[in-house]
Design brief:
The complex is a heterodimer.
Chain A: H1 2-32, H2 38-55, H3 60-88, H4 93-115, E1 129-132, E2 135-138, H5 139-161, H6 163-173, H7 175-180, H8 185-210, H9 218-232, H10 238-258, H11 264-278, H12 287-293
Chain B: H1 3-31, H2 39-54, H3 75-98, H4 103-123, H5 125-128, H6 146-172, H7 174-185, H8 187-192, H9 197-223, H10 234-246, H11 251-268, H12 281-300
Helix pairs in contact in B: 1-6, 1-9, 1-10, 1-11, 2-3, 2-9, 3-9, 6-7, 6-9, 10-11, 10-12, 11-12
The chains are: A mainly alpha, B mainly alpha.
Amino acid sequence: MHILIESIGFGVASGAVLSLGAVGFTLQFGISNLLNVTYGALMSLGAFLGLFLLGLGLNIWLVMTLGGLLIGVTSVAFSRGLISPLTRRGLKPFSLVIVSVSAGIVLEYLIVAVAGPATQSYGNLSGTTLHFWDFTLTTSQVTILAIAVVLMLGLHLLLTRTQLGRAMRATSSNRTLAKSCGIATSRVSDIAWLISGTFCGMAGIALAITTESFDFTLGSLFLIPMIAAAVLGGVGQPYGAMVGGLVVGIVTEISAAYWNPAYESVIAFAILILMLLVRPRGLFGSGSARRLLA
Amino acid sequence: MTGIAFYGVVLLVYLGTDLLAAWGLNLEFGVSGVANLAYIVVIAAGAYTYAILTLGPDTGNGGFQQYVLGLHLPFGVAVVVAAAVGAVIGVVIGVTGLKRIRQDYQAMVMLVISLMAATVVGADTGFLGGQPGLSLIPNPFSGLGGAAGDWAYVAMVAFACVIGFVVMRRFTGGPMGRALRAVRDDEQAAAAMGVSVVRMRLLSQAVGGAFGGVSGALLAAFIGGWSPGAWAYVETLALLTAIIVGGLGNDFGISLGTFLIAVLLLQGVQFLPEIRAHPGLTEALGWITLGSLTIAFLAIRPQGVFRERRPRYHLGDPVADPAGGGTGSAMTPPR
């Protein structure tokens, strides 16, 4: 029982990072309808950017905010400079996936070209270990958890309480209709890419804080559980991705505790394939989510 | 054998095995339209199959590596079995692609399959050698020794390519090729014309998989080792770039593309001087160029250097293919 509760604690901690990444991924997918594989490479870029900023002597939480915003801007540039022009040229969704895989590889090896292929580390930032009940978490894990909760709440308020959020939801559910209702969809889409990129960069840095060491493949390896989380909650649905991230985090940590830890990502893979084949709408998917998959 | 001559041998073997792989992937992707981003998995399956069928029991050599099976089969048999295993795995991968989900989702599933296969094989040391992989895989011409053995291997790869080319032409040209292309271009129209879409898709997956299996077996036997590092998912992208640059669905184009991308670009960067302060820089430059090329071609010239050659029909022509009959000749002239 002790192991179970302890691994649920780990699961919530890693699920927070997963949710952060998955929400960013799904938000951007909902708006642009593109399966953006470059997202993983952008996460790695975030982690390396964080390393650079950390080297300047900045506080780690400032690094996380700053790095996140920088990746957000990069993400808008990626959408404006590459994805939108190609979509306008009428590239098929599959060709766009190949473009995003290629762009991801270019980005990853640009990191290698600048920072080298060696593994990197932020050093020990975990702080003190906290115990309550059977949970064992470090202060940095708890802080990341808190940041994730605040960000999700912020996104929730943005989506439900503001004009911009309504415009975003409208664009996500039907871009053409939203446009003909007078919503500036390209501006809304830019903002969505900015938020998604910021979440992506922050998740990358949070991941780098919580792992002992990382290299340029950090993000693309994390992409599988992240997409699993997004698909589990229903692609394009931020709330689904939050829950999906927690579920995938907890399930993988429990399986790692009771089974071979090397197979941790296999669980995420199994969840993803199963969901895609059995219920591609996701657990909370509605009819409009089905449209995305048809 | 001098260093240059040996390097020539290596390049020729790489070219031959890459050609087989690119032809196989083109059958799946370029001809029948199955978005197989997991193609490197069938190549790996061929390589591992060949290895465990020829290495003998894993207790040999002091048992320093572990793997399942471990037989002493002759080279030819092992390659044929590798082709069969490649075909079966190709079909299994293809079945997930049959599900009616969006093509980009399909691509995603394939990509994930590729990543996960490498993770599972790497994690389980007892299955196929785990992360360190397998070594001492027997070369069939090691008895000849030195230069003679190396050139004999090149000749054998060339022979395999000739057979592969003849087989491929059976599928890319003629009634079969037209049926496969019809499935790729318009599934419903092809089905309405009496082409069995499922059968055609799985057939192209099986044949493409067999090509990959042979390619992997020949590569593993030449290198003598095989590990998860040899089949990262980016390797599929290298083949895909060769196909996109050369010209999707054009047999000559993809052969040229394979030479340019897989051999000239990815091997060529190794001739650049290695900068001591930047290890891995030259390899990184190769992949950066590769990714940029793919994007540039998809954006500017998606049909590739050599566009796909389509049979032309004219009003009043006699039936273009009297021997074809059956499904293939059911194609009507484009209006």
